Amino acid sequence: MNTLLKVAQPLTLPGGAVIKNRFFKSAMSEAMADRSNSPNHLHIELYRKWAEGGTGIVVTGNVMVDRGALGEPGNVAIEDRRNMEQLQQWAQAGTQFGTHLWMQINHPGKQSPRTMSKQPVAPSAIPMGGSYGRAFKAPRELANAEVKAIVKRFVTTARIAKEAGFTGVQIHGAHGYLVNQFLSPADNRRTDEYGGSRENRMRFLIEIYDGMRGALGADFPIGLKLNSSDFKEGGFTEQDSLAVVEKMAKRGIDLIEISGGNYENPKMSADDDSEVFFLKYAERIRSLVDVPIVVTGGFRSQAGMEEALTADNTTMIGIARPLALVPDIPNRILEGRYDTVNTQRLTTGFPSLDRRLGAMIGLSYYEQQMKRIAQGKPVKLHTNGWDPLLHTLREQGIAAFMPRRSN
Ligand SMILES: Cc1cc2nc3c(=O)[nH]c(=O)nc-3n(C[C@H](O)[C@H](O)[C@H](O)COP(=O)(O)O)c2cc1C
Protein backbone atom coordinates (compact mmCIF):
# COMPACT_ATOMS: atom_id res chain seq x y z
CA MET A 1 0.00 0.00 0.00
CA ASN A 2 1.27 3.47 -0.90
CA THR A 3 1.10 5.26 2.45
CA LEU A 4 2.81 8.38 1.08
CA LEU A 5 -0.25 9.45 -0.89
CA LYS A 6 -2.31 12.28 0.59
CA VAL A 7 -5.47 10.19 0.13
CA ALA A 8 -3.92 7.52 2.37
CA GLN A 9 -3.55 9.82 5.39
CA PRO A 10 -5.85 9.17 8.37
CA LEU A 11 -8.02 11.98 9.70
CA THR A 12 -9.24 12.78 13.21
CA LEU A 13 -12.62 14.53 13.28
CA PRO A 14 -13.41 17.32 15.79
CA GLY A 15 -15.36 14.88 17.99
CA GLY A 16 -12.41 12.48 18.06
CA ALA A 17 -13.44 9.78 15.54
CA VAL A 18 -10.53 8.56 13.44
CA ILE A 19 -11.07 7.99 9.71
CA LYS A 20 -8.63 5.62 8.06
CA ASN A 21 -8.11 7.61 4.83
CA ARG A 22 -9.42 10.57 2.84
CA PHE A 23 -11.88 8.76 0.59
CA PHE A 24 -15.50 9.73 1.16
CA LYS A 25 -18.29 7.91 -0.67
CA SER A 26 -21.05 10.48 -1.15
CA ALA A 27 -24.68 9.59 -0.77
CA MET A 28 -26.35 7.83 -3.68
CA SER A 29 -29.99 6.90 -3.26
CA GLU A 30 -30.05 3.17 -3.92
CA ALA A 31 -33.73 2.99 -4.93
CA MET A 32 -33.65 -0.61 -3.70
CA ALA A 33 -36.28 -0.67 -0.95
CA ASP A 34 -39.65 -2.27 -1.60
CA ARG A 35 -43.02 -0.66 -0.93
CA SER A 36 -42.52 -0.96 2.82
CA ASN A 37 -39.43 1.30 2.48
CA SER A 38 -37.40 -1.09 4.61
CA PRO A 39 -33.73 -1.88 4.01
CA ASN A 40 -33.09 -5.42 2.74
CA HIS A 41 -30.35 -7.89 1.74
CA LEU A 42 -29.44 -5.75 -1.30
CA HIS A 43 -28.44 -2.83 0.93
CA ILE A 44 -26.41 -5.17 3.11
CA GLU A 45 -24.51 -6.68 0.15
CA LEU A 46 -23.93 -3.34 -1.61
CA TYR A 47 -22.41 -1.76 1.49
CA ARG A 48 -20.35 -4.88 2.17
CA LYS A 49 -18.75 -4.31 -1.26
CA TRP A 50 -18.09 -0.63 -0.54
CA ALA A 51 -16.53 -1.47 2.83
CA GLU A 52 -14.34 -4.07 1.13
CA GLY A 53 -13.34 -1.42 -1.40
CA GLY A 54 -11.35 0.64 1.09
CA THR A 55 -13.32 3.90 1.48
CA GLY A 56 -12.78 5.77 4.80
CA ILE A 57 -16.32 7.14 5.15
CA VAL A 58 -19.25 5.61 3.28
CA VAL A 59 -22.48 7.62 3.38
CA THR A 60 -25.77 5.82 2.66
CA GLY A 61 -28.30 7.05 0.13
CA ASN A 62 -30.77 9.44 1.69
CA VAL A 63 -32.90 7.77 4.35
CA MET A 64 -36.25 9.48 4.86
CA VAL A 65 -37.60 10.37 8.29
CA ASP A 66 -41.24 9.86 7.29
CA ARG A 67 -42.79 7.09 5.16
CA GLY A 68 -45.47 9.58 4.19
CA ALA A 69 -42.94 11.95 2.65
CA LEU A 70 -40.70 10.24 0.11
CA GLY A 71 -38.44 11.70 -2.54
CA GLU A 72 -38.60 8.76 -4.92
CA PRO A 73 -39.68 5.14 -5.21
CA GLY A 74 -37.37 2.75 -3.38
CA ASN A 75 -36.33 5.15 -0.60
CA VAL A 76 -35.50 3.66 2.77
CA ALA A 77 -37.51 5.34 5.54
CA ILE A 78 -36.69 4.91 9.23
CA GLU A 79 -39.25 6.24 11.70
CA ASP A 80 -39.04 3.65 14.46
CA ARG A 81 -37.28 0.44 15.48
CA ARG A 82 -39.24 -1.94 13.24
CA ASN A 83 -36.27 -2.60 10.91
CA MET A 84 -33.66 -2.92 13.65
CA GLU A 85 -32.47 -6.35 12.55
CA GLN A 86 -31.85 -5.37 8.90
CA LEU A 87 -30.27 -2.11 10.03
CA GLN A 88 -27.89 -3.98 12.29
CA GLN A 89 -26.86 -6.29 9.45
CA TRP A 90 -26.46 -3.31 7.12
CA ALA A 91 -24.29 -1.52 9.69
CA GLN A 92 -22.22 -4.61 10.35
CA ALA A 93 -21.51 -5.27 6.67
CA GLY A 94 -20.74 -1.62 5.98
CA THR A 95 -18.33 -1.05 8.86
CA GLN A 96 -15.92 -3.91 8.11
CA PHE A 97 -12.23 -3.07 7.76
CA GLY A 98 -12.62 0.00 9.96
CA THR A 99 -14.93 1.70 7.46
CA HIS A 100 -17.13 4.47 8.82
CA LEU A 101 -20.74 4.03 7.72
CA TRP A 102 -22.86 7.15 8.06
CA MET A 103 -26.59 7.36 7.45
CA GLN A 104 -27.71 10.34 5.40
CA ILE A 105 -30.96 11.61 6.90
CA ASN A 106 -33.47 13.56 4.82
CA HIS A 107 -36.98 14.91 4.34
CA PRO A 108 -37.92 15.97 0.79
CA GLY A 109 -40.31 18.79 1.71
CA LYS A 110 -41.93 20.02 -1.52
CA GLN A 111 -39.47 18.07 -3.62
CA SER A 112 -41.66 14.97 -3.43
CA PRO A 113 -43.07 14.14 -6.87
CA ARG A 114 -46.83 14.14 -7.47
CA THR A 115 -46.66 10.38 -7.98
CA MET A 116 -45.48 10.07 -4.35
CA SER A 117 -47.21 12.92 -2.47
CA LYS A 118 -50.73 14.24 -2.97
CA GLN A 119 -49.81 17.32 -1.00
CA PRO A 120 -46.20 17.81 -0.03
CA VAL A 121 -45.23 20.13 2.81
CA ALA A 122 -42.75 23.00 2.81
CA PRO A 123 -41.71 26.03 4.86
CA SER A 124 -44.06 28.14 2.70
CA ALA A 125 -46.73 27.34 0.11
CA ILE A 126 -44.51 28.22 -2.84
CA PRO A 127 -44.72 25.75 -5.73
CA MET A 128 -41.63 24.28 -7.34
CA GLY A 129 -40.47 26.35 -10.27
CA GLY A 130 -38.17 25.52 -13.11
CA SER A 131 -38.70 23.23 -16.05
CA TYR A 132 -39.51 20.25 -13.81
CA GLY A 133 -42.04 22.15 -11.66
CA ARG A 134 -45.04 20.36 -13.17
CA ALA A 135 -43.89 17.07 -11.71
CA PHE A 136 -44.58 18.33 -8.17
CA LYS A 137 -47.85 19.33 -6.56
CA ALA A 138 -48.00 22.71 -4.85
CA PRO A 139 -46.96 22.33 -1.21
CA ARG A 140 -48.83 23.23 1.94
CA GLU A 141 -47.13 25.42 4.54
CA LEU A 142 -46.06 23.51 7.64
CA ALA A 143 -47.64 24.62 10.92
CA ASN A 144 -45.17 25.64 13.62
CA ALA A 145 -45.88 22.46 15.64
CA GLU A 146 -45.32 20.34 12.52
CA VAL A 147 -41.89 21.86 12.01
CA LYS A 148 -40.96 20.88 15.56
CA ALA A 149 -42.33 17.36 14.95
CA ILE A 150 -40.10 16.96 11.87
CA VAL A 151 -37.07 18.09 13.89
CA LYS A 152 -37.92 15.27 16.34
CA ARG A 153 -38.15 12.79 13.45
CA PHE A 154 -34.63 13.64 12.29
CA VAL A 155 -33.37 13.07 15.83
CA THR A 156 -35.26 9.77 16.16
CA THR A 157 -33.85 8.42 12.88
CA ALA A 158 -30.34 9.40 13.97
CA ARG A 159 -30.80 7.72 17.35
CA ILE A 160 -31.92 4.50 15.65
CA ALA A 161 -28.95 4.65 13.25
CA LYS A 162 -26.54 4.83 16.19
CA GLU A 163 -28.32 2.06 18.06
CA ALA A 164 -28.08 -0.18 14.96
CA GLY A 165 -24.32 0.32 14.67
CA PHE A 166 -23.95 3.07 12.07
CA THR A 167 -20.90 5.09 13.08
CA GLY A 168 -22.15 8.53 12.03
CA VAL A 169 -24.98 10.48 10.46
CA GLN A 170 -25.16 13.19 7.82
CA ILE A 171 -27.93 15.79 7.70
CA HIS A 172 -28.96 16.39 4.07
CA GLY A 173 -29.02 20.17 3.82
CA ALA A 174 -28.46 20.38 0.05
CA HIS A 175 -30.13 19.76 -3.33
CA GLY A 176 -33.39 21.58 -2.66
CA TYR A 177 -34.78 19.23 0.01
CA LEU A 178 -36.51 20.41 3.20
CA VAL A 179 -33.49 21.67 5.18
CA ASN A 180 -32.32 23.54 2.06
CA GLN A 181 -35.87 24.91 1.62
CA PHE A 182 -35.80 26.36 5.15
CA LEU A 183 -32.40 27.94 4.50
CA SER A 184 -33.44 29.52 1.20
CA PRO A 185 -35.23 32.90 1.23
CA ALA A 186 -36.85 31.96 -2.10
CA ASP A 187 -38.60 28.96 -0.48
CA ASN A 188 -38.99 30.22 3.08
CA ARG A 189 -41.30 33.22 3.59
CA ARG A 190 -42.37 32.23 7.09
CA THR A 191 -43.13 34.84 9.71
CA ASP A 192 -42.57 32.64 12.78
CA GLU A 193 -39.18 31.88 14.38
CA TYR A 194 -38.24 29.61 11.42
CA GLY A 195 -38.37 32.31 8.74
CA GLY A 196 -37.28 35.84 7.92
CA SER A 197 -33.75 36.61 9.07
CA ARG A 198 -30.85 34.33 8.17
CA GLU A 199 -30.68 33.41 11.85
CA ASN A 200 -34.31 32.26 11.73
CA ARG A 201 -33.93 30.39 8.42
CA MET A 202 -31.07 28.44 10.03
CA ARG A 203 -33.13 27.50 13.07
CA PHE A 204 -34.61 24.29 11.59
CA LEU A 205 -31.12 22.96 10.83
CA ILE A 206 -29.69 24.08 14.17
CA GLU A 207 -32.51 22.44 16.12
CA ILE A 208 -31.97 19.19 14.18
CA TYR A 209 -28.24 19.34 14.87
CA ASP A 210 -28.60 20.24 18.55
CA GLY A 211 -31.22 17.53 19.03
CA MET A 212 -28.97 14.94 17.42
CA ARG A 213 -25.92 16.07 19.36
CA GLY A 214 -27.86 15.79 22.63
CA ALA A 215 -29.13 12.31 21.73
CA LEU A 216 -25.93 10.89 20.23
CA GLY A 217 -23.21 12.34 22.46
CA ALA A 218 -20.21 14.59 21.87
CA ASP A 219 -18.04 11.99 20.17
CA PHE A 220 -20.53 10.61 17.62
CA PRO A 221 -19.81 12.02 14.15
CA ILE A 222 -22.49 14.32 12.75
CA GLY A 223 -21.94 15.75 9.27
CA LEU A 224 -23.85 18.14 7.02
CA LYS A 225 -24.24 18.23 3.24
CA LEU A 226 -24.72 21.80 2.09
CA ASN A 227 -25.10 23.66 -1.19
CA SER A 228 -22.43 26.23 -1.93
CA SER A 229 -25.35 28.29 -3.32
CA ASP A 230 -28.73 27.59 -4.95
CA PHE A 231 -27.60 29.41 -8.09
CA LYS A 232 -30.94 31.13 -8.34
CA GLU A 233 -32.19 34.67 -7.97
CA GLY A 234 -33.28 35.40 -4.39
CA GLY A 235 -32.24 31.94 -3.22
CA PHE A 236 -29.65 30.60 -0.79
CA THR A 237 -26.50 32.53 -1.63
CA GLU A 238 -22.84 31.82 -1.13
CA GLN A 239 -22.93 34.34 1.75
CA ASP A 240 -25.77 32.36 3.37
CA SER A 241 -23.83 29.17 2.87
CA LEU A 242 -20.66 30.56 4.45
CA ALA A 243 -22.72 31.82 7.41
CA VAL A 244 -24.16 28.31 7.92
CA VAL A 245 -20.68 26.79 7.75
CA GLU A 246 -19.38 29.23 10.36
CA LYS A 247 -22.32 28.65 12.69
CA MET A 248 -22.18 24.86 12.39
CA ALA A 249 -18.41 24.80 12.89
CA LYS A 250 -18.84 26.73 16.14
CA ARG A 251 -21.49 24.27 17.32
CA GLY A 252 -19.17 21.31 16.79
CA ILE A 253 -20.20 19.73 13.48
CA ASP A 254 -17.65 17.06 12.53
CA LEU A 255 -17.59 17.53 8.78
CA ILE A 256 -19.25 19.59 6.05
CA GLU A 257 -19.73 18.23 2.53
CA ILE A 258 -20.12 20.85 -0.17
CA SER A 259 -22.40 20.35 -3.15
CA GLY A 260 -24.59 22.70 -5.16
CA GLY A 261 -27.80 23.24 -7.05
CA ASN A 262 -31.24 21.70 -6.93
CA TYR A 263 -33.99 20.48 -9.22
CA GLU A 264 -34.67 23.82 -10.71
CA ASN A 265 -31.11 24.61 -11.52
CA PRO A 266 -28.97 21.51 -11.51
CA LYS A 267 -25.40 22.28 -10.69
CA MET A 268 -24.28 19.38 -8.54
CA SER A 269 -23.12 17.06 -11.25
CA ALA A 270 -21.25 17.51 -14.48
CA ASP A 271 -21.83 15.50 -17.60
CA ASP A 272 -18.36 16.07 -18.84
CA ASP A 273 -15.60 15.00 -16.54
CA SER A 274 -14.43 18.52 -15.66
CA GLU A 275 -12.69 18.02 -12.36
CA VAL A 276 -14.44 19.59 -9.42
CA PHE A 277 -16.77 22.56 -9.48
CA PHE A 278 -16.69 23.67 -5.88
CA LEU A 279 -13.01 24.01 -5.15
CA LYS A 280 -13.12 27.80 -5.34
CA TYR A 281 -15.86 27.96 -2.78
CA ALA A 282 -14.07 25.42 -0.60
CA GLU A 283 -11.00 27.64 -0.60
CA ARG A 284 -13.11 30.42 0.88
CA ILE A 285 -14.40 28.10 3.60
CA ARG A 286 -10.90 26.93 4.42
CA SER A 287 -9.87 30.48 5.21
CA LEU A 288 -12.89 30.89 7.50
CA VAL A 289 -13.09 27.74 9.65
CA ASP A 290 -11.02 24.65 10.25
CA VAL A 291 -13.85 22.10 10.23
CA PRO A 292 -13.10 19.17 7.88
CA ILE A 293 -14.52 19.81 4.40
CA VAL A 294 -15.49 17.32 1.72
CA VAL A 295 -15.79 18.62 -1.81
CA THR A 296 -17.93 16.33 -3.97
CA GLY A 297 -18.58 16.38 -7.69
CA GLY A 298 -16.26 15.58 -10.54
CA PHE A 299 -13.32 13.85 -8.85
CA ARG A 300 -12.15 11.20 -11.28
CA SER A 301 -8.36 11.10 -11.58
CA GLN A 302 -5.87 10.19 -8.89
CA ALA A 303 -3.83 13.29 -9.82
CA GLY A 304 -6.90 15.53 -9.35
CA MET A 305 -7.55 14.05 -5.90
CA GLU A 306 -3.93 14.40 -4.77
CA GLU A 307 -3.76 17.98 -6.07
CA ALA A 308 -6.91 19.05 -4.20
CA LEU A 309 -5.57 17.61 -0.93
CA THR A 310 -2.10 19.06 -1.49
CA ALA A 311 -3.58 22.53 -2.11
CA ASP A 312 -5.60 21.98 1.09
CA ASN A 313 -8.79 22.83 -0.78
CA THR A 314 -10.58 19.88 0.76
CA THR A 315 -9.99 17.54 3.69
CA MET A 316 -11.52 14.48 2.05
CA ILE A 317 -12.36 13.50 -1.53
CA GLY A 318 -16.08 13.08 -2.15
CA ILE A 319 -16.88 10.54 -4.85
CA ALA A 320 -20.29 9.28 -5.94
CA ARG A 321 -20.90 7.94 -9.47
CA PRO A 322 -17.46 6.41 -10.07
CA LEU A 323 -17.94 4.26 -6.94
CA ALA A 324 -21.16 2.87 -8.42
CA LEU A 325 -19.08 1.59 -11.32
CA VAL A 326 -15.90 0.61 -9.48
CA PRO A 327 -16.62 0.07 -5.76
CA ASP A 328 -12.97 -0.43 -4.81
CA ILE A 329 -11.43 2.77 -6.22
CA PRO A 330 -9.66 3.51 -2.88
CA ASN A 331 -7.94 0.11 -2.77
CA ARG A 332 -6.97 0.43 -6.43
CA ILE A 333 -5.40 3.82 -5.81
CA LEU A 334 -3.66 2.75 -2.61
CA GLU A 335 -2.31 -0.35 -4.35
CA GLY A 336 -1.19 1.58 -7.43
CA ARG A 337 -3.59 -0.05 -9.92
CA TYR A 338 -6.17 2.64 -10.65
CA ASP A 339 -7.24 3.82 -14.09
CA THR A 340 -9.42 6.92 -14.13
CA VAL A 341 -13.13 6.05 -14.14
CA ASN A 342 -15.06 8.18 -16.61
CA THR A 343 -18.71 9.01 -16.12
CA GLN A 344 -19.78 9.84 -19.63
CA ARG A 345 -23.19 11.07 -20.60
CA LEU A 346 -25.59 8.32 -21.61
CA THR A 347 -27.52 8.74 -24.81
CA THR A 348 -30.59 7.24 -26.46
CA GLY A 349 -29.33 8.41 -29.84
CA PHE A 350 -32.19 10.94 -29.98
CA PRO A 351 -31.11 14.42 -28.81
CA SER A 352 -34.66 15.56 -27.97
CA LEU A 353 -35.25 12.46 -25.83
CA ASP A 354 -31.86 12.93 -24.17
CA ARG A 355 -32.78 16.52 -23.36
CA ARG A 356 -36.04 15.49 -21.69
CA LEU A 357 -34.92 12.30 -19.98
CA GLY A 358 -31.16 12.80 -19.62
CA ALA A 359 -31.14 13.32 -15.83
CA MET A 360 -33.47 10.37 -15.27
CA ILE A 361 -31.43 8.11 -17.56
CA GLY A 362 -28.25 9.02 -15.66
CA LEU A 363 -29.81 8.24 -12.27
CA SER A 364 -31.30 5.00 -13.58
CA TYR A 365 -27.98 3.85 -14.95
CA TYR A 366 -26.19 4.29 -11.61
CA GLU A 367 -29.12 2.76 -9.69
CA GLN A 368 -28.95 -0.21 -12.06
CA GLN A 369 -25.22 -0.63 -11.46
CA MET A 370 -25.60 -0.39 -7.66
CA LYS A 371 -28.20 -3.15 -7.85
CA ARG A 372 -25.88 -5.29 -9.97
CA ILE A 373 -23.07 -4.83 -7.42
CA ALA A 374 -25.49 -5.81 -4.63
CA GLN A 375 -26.44 -8.94 -6.59
CA GLY A 376 -22.80 -9.89 -7.15
CA LYS A 377 -23.04 -9.20 -10.91
CA PRO A 378 -20.46 -7.25 -12.92
CA VAL A 379 -21.36 -3.62 -13.68
CA LYS A 380 -22.18 -2.73 -17.29
CA LEU A 381 -19.91 -0.02 -18.63
CA HIS A 382 -21.60 1.61 -21.60
CA THR A 383 -23.19 4.86 -22.73
CA ASN A 384 -26.38 3.43 -24.22
CA GLY A 385 -29.30 5.19 -22.55
CA TRP A 386 -31.90 2.58 -23.52
CA ASP A 387 -30.68 -0.10 -21.16
CA PRO A 388 -31.17 1.92 -17.95
CA LEU A 389 -34.38 3.38 -19.34
CA LEU A 390 -35.91 -0.07 -19.82
CA HIS A 391 -34.50 -1.29 -16.50
CA THR A 392 -36.24 1.50 -14.60
CA LEU A 393 -39.44 1.09 -16.56
CA ARG A 394 -39.44 -2.60 -15.57
CA GLU A 395 -38.68 -1.84 -11.90
CA GLN A 396 -40.76 1.24 -11.27
CA GLY A 397 -43.26 1.52 -14.11
CA ILE A 398 -44.24 4.73 -15.82
CA ALA A 399 -43.87 6.77 -12.58
CA ALA A 400 -40.14 6.52 -13.12
CA PHE A 401 -40.45 9.03 -15.94
CA MET A 402 -41.33 11.78 -13.51
CA PRO A 403 -38.36 13.89 -12.46
CA ARG A 404 -37.20 13.06 -8.97
CA ARG A 405 -33.98 14.97 -8.47
CA SER A 406 -31.59 16.45 -10.87
CA ASN A 407 -28.45 15.08 -9.29
C1 LIG B 1 -27.89 7.70 -8.55
C2 LIG B 1 -27.55 8.91 -7.69
C3 LIG B 1 -28.20 9.09 -6.49
C4 LIG B 1 -27.86 10.17 -5.65
N1 LIG B 1 -28.48 10.28 -4.44
C5 LIG B 1 -28.09 11.24 -3.57
C6 LIG B 1 -28.62 11.28 -2.26
O1 LIG B 1 -29.43 10.43 -1.84
N2 LIG B 1 -28.19 12.27 -1.43
C7 LIG B 1 -27.27 13.20 -1.84
O2 LIG B 1 -26.90 14.06 -1.04
N3 LIG B 1 -26.75 13.19 -3.07
C8 LIG B 1 -27.11 12.23 -3.94
N4 LIG B 1 -26.53 12.16 -5.18
C9 LIG B 1 -25.50 13.17 -5.54
C10 LIG B 1 -24.09 12.66 -5.23
O3 LIG B 1 -23.88 12.45 -3.84
C11 LIG B 1 -23.01 13.63 -5.71
O4 LIG B 1 -23.18 14.87 -5.03
C12 LIG B 1 -23.06 13.86 -7.23
O5 LIG B 1 -23.29 12.64 -7.93
C13 LIG B 1 -21.74 14.48 -7.74
O6 LIG B 1 -20.62 13.66 -7.43
P1 LIG B 1 -19.92 12.72 -8.54
O7 LIG B 1 -19.48 13.63 -9.67
O8 LIG B 1 -18.72 12.10 -7.84
O9 LIG B 1 -20.90 11.71 -9.00
C14 LIG B 1 -26.87 11.11 -6.04
C15 LIG B 1 -26.22 10.93 -7.28
C16 LIG B 1 -26.54 9.84 -8.09
C17 LIG B 1 -25.81 9.66 -9.39
TrEMBL record:
Pfam families in the cross-refs: Oxidored_FMN
Keywords: Flavoprotein, Oxidoreductase
SUPFAM superfamilies: FMN-linked oxidoreductases (SSF51395)
Domain NADH:flavin oxidoreductase/NADH oxidase N-terminal per the UniProt entry, residue ranges: 9-339
Recorded superkingdom: Bacteria
CDD domains found in the cross-reference section: OYE_like_2_FMN
PANTHER family: BINDING OXIDOREDUCTASE, PUTATIVE (AFU_ORTHOLOGUE AFUA_2G08260)-RELATED
Protein name: NADH oxidase
Native source organism of the sequence: Saccharibacillus endophyticus
